[in-house]
Amino acid sequence: MRIITLPLHPTKYSCNVYYLLGDWNKLDDVNTLIDAGVDDYAISQIDAVTTGIGQKKVSQIIITHEHFDHRGGVKFLKPKYDPKVFAFNKGEFIDIQVYDGMQVRLGDTEGIILHTPGHSNDSISVYVPSQGVIFTGDLPLMVSNNRETYTLSYYNTLKKLLELDFKDIYPGHGNPLLGNGKEVLARTFSIVSNSRIIQ
Question: Does the pTM of the predicted model rise above 0.90?
Answer without folding.
Answer: yes
